[in-house]
Structures are given as structure tokens and as C-alpha cells.
Amino acid sequence: MSGKRLDGKIVIITGGASGIGAESVRLFTDHGARVVIVDIQDELGQSVAVSVGEDKATYYHCDVTNETEVENAVKFTVEKHGKLDVLLSNAGVIDPFTSILDLDLDRFDRVVAANLRGAAAFIKHAARAMVEKGTRGSIVCTTSVAAEVAGTGPHGYTASKHGLLGLIKSASGGLGKYGIRVNGVAPYGVATPLVCNGFNIEPNVVEANTLANGNLKGIILKARHVAEAALFLASDASAYVSGQNLAVDGGYSVVKP
Question: Per its UniProt record, what InterPro entries does this chain match (predicted)?
Fold first, then answer.
């Protein structure tokens, strides 16, 4: 990939303090973007901003389940940079694997609040800012193979990601008249802190499982692969792509083991 695909673009990346989000911050700024990192992990988020250069990235504390904080994060971005071109809605949480017979509905509600409602709030306020400024923007949401295939994730996570995919499709229909694109990027198992800490499992075990169970052999899925797909959807290289869910799963969701 040559050239800077996001030169001059202003980007919000939620969940940008670690994992796929942090890798996306690094890649997007390498491609010329100025990024506002949104997260609740203050120390990590500030560290990522410093590592890429505070002229390129700024950290902003925001709980995506709080709509007022979401609205303020978007306002902060527009006031600082004058516009908003791209939203990468990546923040999320995960619940443990349990039987549906033992489903903890309070935990279920928290997962849906972060993964689905939080994304909806950011799409709402980011799109408002894009419409107000006349920006033909791009909104990208991190979904999952769990948005298409059951059994790959816990119940709350799977339900939230299925809902998120429906929201992407619905939002793309409503925002197309403004020239705003809405898409998803759907990874298979990546050894991110979310996955490793959520399931109390070592990164090498996650990678071994993905390699063993995935369809495409010889490649270990990394956060960088997902960030590169998100970059494509964020950039003008995908100028006529909307309402899609780009799978980064080595064919897993099509050719299941």
C-alpha cells in the first residue's frame, strides 16, 4: 500500500487505547490522519497518543454508554479540528461463555449497552457533525464473525454484534443521501487484551486456536490485519462501498470447519 490514504482526514477511534483500536490509531496516523482516541483507559490512551505524536493524536476520556459523553467527544473533535471525516466505532466488551440456561441478564445488558447502544450513540452524533459540516464521511464499526455466525462468541457478545450489523445496514440506508458511508469490519479471533483478559487466556493460545480452527492456513490473524481493512473502508479507496460487513476471517464465516 503506497501513499497516505487519510491525508488531512479527522478521525475518531473509540476503544483506541488498546488492541485493534490502538493499532488503527498507529496505522491511520501513518496515513496522514489526525485522530482523537476515545476510551476509558486513560493511561493507555494517553500513552498511545504520545507514542504516535501528540500533533497527530489526542486522547479524550469517554464512556460510550453515556450519550452525553459521546456527544461531548464529538463536539471536542469538531471544535479542535473543525470537522469530522471518519468514525471508527471499535469500543466493546465481552461476556464469559455460559449456557443460555445460566445467562446473567445484568451482564448481558452491559455488553449490549457498550457494543450496540454505544455504537448507535456515536453513529448518531458523528453523523450529525458530518451532515452539519457537509462532510461525505465514512463510519466504520468493528463487528465480528459473531455478527454472522453463532457459536463463535458468548451469548451477549453475539447478540450485540448481530444487532450492530443490523444497525450498520439501517444507518447506511438513512445516511446515503448525505454521502455518508457506513460499513463494518468483522474479524475472527484476534489475541487482543479484550479477548485475552475477557477469557483469561494467553495470546499464544488464542492464536493457536484461530490458526487451528480457521479456514485459511499459514497466517496468524493480527490486529494489524483488521486495522488495514478498517483503513480501506475509512478511505476514499472504498468511495462507493456502504452497508457492507468486510470479513477479516480467512473465509471462516463462509467455509466453516
Answer: NAD(P)-bd_dom_sf, SDR_fam
